[in-house]
Amino acid sequence: MAKKFIICIDLGGTNLKVALLDLNYKIKDREILSTRSFMEKDDLIQGIVHSVNRFIKYNALSKAQILGVGLGLPGPIDAKRGIVHFFPNIPGWKEVALRDILRKKLSLAVYLDNDAKLMTLAEHKLGAAKGYRNVLCMTLGTGIGGGIIINNKLYRGFNNAAGEIGHLPINEKGAPCNCGALGCLEAYVGNQRIIKEARKTFKRSITLEELSWLAIKRNRLAIAVWRKTGGHLGFALAGVVNLLNLDAIVIGGGVAGAGNVLFESIKQALKDQAMSVQAGHVKIFKAKLGNEAGLIGAAIMVKEGL
Amino acid sequence: MAKKFIICIDLGGTNLKVALLDLNYKIKDREILSTRSFMEKDDLIQGIVHSVNRFIKYNALSKAQILGVGLGLPGPIDAKRGIVHFFPNIPGWKEVALRDILRKKLSLAVYLDNDAKLMTLAEHKLGAAKGYRNVLCMTLGTGIGGGIIINNKLYRGFNNAAGEIGHLPINEKGAPCNCGALGCLEAYVGNQRIIKEARKTFKRSITLEELSWLAIKRNRLAIAVWRKTGGHLGFALAGVVNLLNLDAIVIGGGVAGAGNVLFESIKQALKDQAMSVQAGHVKIFKAKLGNEAGLIGAAIMVKEGL
Fold first, then answer.
1. Which DSSP letter does residue A290 get?
2. pTM
3. Which end of chain A has fewer beta carbons closer than 10 Å to its terminal beta carbon, N or C?
4. Residue A124, domain member (yes or no)
5. B36-66 pLDDT, tens per residue?
């Protein structure tokens, strides 16, 4: 029997990543397109279809060798029915039956889910949370995404909306959040917020990369910004740990690149704020699979039929 | 075959309730003792043993007819190994292997767990959350207890410490909590805190019962106190709902007696603060089984061998 493969797509606001993986989740081929080069919803769908077909052709595969196509998408998804509710950062998508559209155009099995949930699957099966039974994974970025593993399985909640750790509120009269509520974690540790804080501290504009680099070089001001960020994160995570008595928390996304300073302040705030039994047990890890977590998670979803 | 029964014990800081239940969870006999009449740990254990033996004798039962003894206890419990870690409000208990002690003295199967977890089991199987798959149950009192049902099963977390909704923090620079942390929900809606708030509002001392009664009579000041309490609760629950995409939340305990005013403000705050998909789905219920929830939950634990 010919060897089988999975084609995975990780759609972000900036990049559209496509990759061919074998059933051991090794990436055999990949390409990165610019999401913004597709002006309309239909262009983007057509771009995905062309890319999948190119991968099959240039790798000399037959469609029978493709176990399925898995998509990680940046917004709320009805994974059971294969519907995109909307994308907060890509206009023109509203209640799109993307699974059925792609199945028809590709004649392949298609699976879709929210990108943070797929990152969670990947980090639990092959990454930082491997072997841990009850886990929260979170990605730090413009938005804060998350996913929860309960008893070794992805926990979706009623309509696949579980995991929104970015919208755990931490101050009743706190900063307004993009979701319309007050004091959500995301309003304190989203990229824009950190950049704003850094600009105030340095009295000039500064990128997150520079801020991370300065912290690694032990710049006092940069360290202060990351400590404050870690304090907010640890405070929110203390509540989650008290509530869920988790085994592990995995933190990924660009900001996690700030490294030790950030992680040490998260751990300290968590220890100060969480109950001793829960705080004493939980491990805090940096995500291990980096930019590939979404693609690998999509492959796990296809292979395990999740 | 002779009919089988379960003997259940619900230990509180004030009362020790003992009851005989049949396998349909109907209470056939009961007694209430004063916890404080037992001065020492060993007296309390002996009191439980005598009470169980009395129930068997006066109901003309044989030990073979007792499926087991179930205890609901006011503190952290290692349910698997049957160990009481400690009781916050009853001195003298520290790492007590209560299950083994009682098994030996009674020659009966013995099960123990935290009282809020047993209330959760009861409300899910027979009470307000019957038929709901993912549920948070909470009891409002001096402390705030809680339990979580995930996929129709009690979720314990790593060391049976999950469910501590009272220690979900809601303000980073908030009021100090008995647990040593800052801004926990319990520091805003625990009984002592509500009484303090009411005393400030009414400029005299006032009981929770009177405060509830006044609210039902539409007293403006009492309503304001309950609205504020409901606001804190709804804010915290919004975070839980965003994180867990729950089907239902059940609220019990003395304070829940304040009725509509409290529940309406919880619902309003939740609606204002939670994301629309999650908030639109979750139901908020008043607990249904009242004071019997602990006893019924203990019987469920024994019957289902949980």
1. G
2. 0.94
3. N
4. no
5. 888 899 999 999 999 999 999 999 999 999 9
Asked if residues A195 and A207 have their Cβ atoms less than 8 Å apart, the reply is yes
β-strand pairing of A283-286 with A248-252: parallel
A283 shares a domain with A204: yes
Residues A280 and A296 in one domain: no
B169 touches chain A (CB under 8 A): yes
Q: Would you say the ipTM is above 0.90?
A: yes
Same domain, B160 and B238: yes
**Chain A contact probe: residue of B78, B172, B271 with most A CBs at under 10 A:** B172
How far B29 CA sits from the closest chain A CA (Å)?
36
DSSP A74: S
Which two tokens mark A274? 């969480």
Interatomic CA distance for residues A265 and A244, integer angstroms: 21
Same-domain pairing of B114 and B146: no
Contact B244 A162 (CB under 8 A): yes
Give chain A's domain count.
2
Q: Say yes or no: B193 and B284 in one domain.
A: yes
Cβ-defined contact of A275 to B167 (cutoff 8 Å) = yes
Q: Are A12 and A44 in contact (CB under 8 A)?
A: no
Residue B191 sits in a domain of what CATH number? 3.30.420.40
Is B158 an 8 Å CB contact of chain A? yes
Residues A269 and A136 in one domain: yes
Task: Convert the pLDDT of each residue in B221-242 to its tens digit.
Answer: 999 999 999 999 999 999 999 9
